[in-house]
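Hello, quick one for you while I still have it in my head. A protein chain has come my way and I'm curious about its shape. Can you walk me through what the C-alpha cells say about the fold? No rush at all, and the record is pasted right below.
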Amino acid sequence: MGFVVSPMMSLFSKFTVLLLFVLWCASFTSTEAYDPLDPTGNITIKWDIISWTADGYVAVVTIYNFQQYRHIQAPGWSLGWTWAKKEVIWSMLGGQATEQGDCSKFKGNIPHCCKKSPTVVDLLPGIPYNQQIANCCKGGVISSWAQDPANAASSFQLSVGSAGTSNKTVRLPKNFTLKAPGPGYTCARAKIVKPTRFMSTDKRRITQALMTWNVTCTYSQFLAQKTP
C-alpha cells in the first residue's frame, strides 16, 4: 500500500522549506560589516583639506574610533586607498606610507610615495617633534570613544601632488581599506560633507577646512574570523 501525503503535510513541508531558505539568506546578509555588540559603532576617517598648493593640496586625515568597546591595539591601524587620478604623496607628518613605489619619473625632488594604492601607518612614539602633528605617533593605538575619548583619535598630515587644486578639480580617493590591526572592517565610499570647523587654542577664533570628506568603516566579527 503506497504512502499518501495529506494536503496539511504538504503545506507544512513547503513552509519548512521556505523557512530554511529565509534563514539561509539571512545568514549571508549578516556577513556584511556589522557588530551585534555595538550596532551603531564605527570608525570614521575624516579628510580635511587645509590649504592648496601649486599642484595639489595639504590635508589632515583623522581616524576616529567611535566604537564603544573595541580598541585599536598594537601593532595599530593601517589605512589604504586608491587614488582617483595620478596623485602622489610629496611629504607626510605624523604618519608614513609603507612603500615608496616607483618614483623614477621624478627629477630633483622625490615624492614620499608614488604608489597608486598606498598604505599609511602611524609613527611610533618618540619620533622627532618636527615630524609630529596633534594626535599622532602612538604606534597606531587608539582607544574607544566611550572608554577614553581623549585618546580615541589618530591623525596624520600629507601633501598631495598631481591632484586637483580647487574644490571642483579634486577627486576623492576610493577603495578605502582599514586594518586595525587585523581584518574585519568594511569601508564605505568617501562622501563630501560640510567642512570641518577648527577652534583656536584660545577659543577666540574659528577657521574651517577648504574641503572635507568622510569615510565610515564598520566591523564584522564574521569577516574577522573568515580571514586567516
